[in-house]
Amino acid sequence: MKLETLKRLNTARDAREAAILITDVTTGDERLVLEKDGYAGDPLEEELGKRFRSGGSGMVRQPEGGDLFFTVSVPPPRLVVVGAVHISQALAPMARIAGFDMSIVDPRTAFASEERFPDVPLYAEWPDVAIPKVGLDRFTALAALTHDPKIDDGALTAALAAGCFYVGALGSRKTHGKRLERLRAAGVDDAALETIHAPIGLAIGARSPAEIAVAILAEVIGALRRRGMAGETVA
């Protein structure tokens, strides 16, 4: 790999940006594609999209010869949960097994305790203080679970502004309707509001906290693996 290419790749990794190094295995020619720069119109657009979504490296055989190797560098996905509630307790071990780095934000110290969440990074602070510390980006999902507008609304606004690949909120359709009114009044545009998953989680008839956690995680994984596809929020 050329030194300049390596520098660009390391810069992308440090910034939690997805990148693919395409190498012609016959000639040694290489080029680096950064997802943030876009790849629409690239001769390998379809394959690039698949690789960015899957995160998998591998050989791509060309009909005209000159096989290409795709070295894919995708940041590990993160899940930020606003609300140290029972659903979050069930969600934490599931998210870890699925490969997500999960953290919890909740200013209510009675809920956000190490006793309830022994192995999860906790931020017992208001979202406007905690979220800049956690950091949000295009490889972060945010789930707002407190049912308290004073806590959830600011976090949702921040997640939409950051381009998180998934933004979800707990609550009925009636509750979400009122939430949309508040966020719209706060200046969030309708296009962004339409990307919020609410009621949160796949519609599997979940009732218990554990079942709701399964529904949420499944929806998050689905959004991660469909990034960049039509109807999704991340290009």
Number of domains: 2
Radius of gyration: 20 Å
Parts with pLDDT < 50 across at least 5 consecutive residues: 231-235
Classify the fold: give the CATH topology of the largest domain: Rossmann fold
Strands across the major sheet, in which order?
Answer: 7-6-5-8-9
Shape: elongated
Number of helices: 8
Structural class based on helices, strands and sheet pairing: alpha/beta
State the helical fraction. 25-40%
Largest sheet features: 5 strands, parallel
Which CATH class of the largest domain is shown?
Alpha Beta
Question: How large is the share of residues in beta strands?
Answer: 15-25%
Tell how many strands the DSSP assignment holds.
Answer: 9
3D structure, described in words:
The protein is an alpha/beta fold and 235 residues long. It is 38% helix and 17% strand. The protein folds into two domains: 3-73, no CATH class; 78-225, NAD(P)-binding Rossmann-like Domain (Rossmann fold), CATH 3.40.50.720. A hairpin with a 5-residue loop joins β1 and β2. α3 crosses α8. The two termini are 27 Å apart.
List the helices and strands and how they pair.
Layout: H1 3-14, E1 19-24, E2 30-34, H2 45-54, E3 58-60, E4 68-73, E5 78-82, H3 86-97, E6 101-105, E7 122-123, H4 127-134, E8 140-144, H5 149-162, E9 166-169, H6 173-185, H7 190-193, H8 209-225
Parallel strand pairs: 5-6, 5-8, 6-7, 8-9
Antiparallel strand pairs: 1-2, 1-4, 3-4
Helix pairs in contact: 3-8
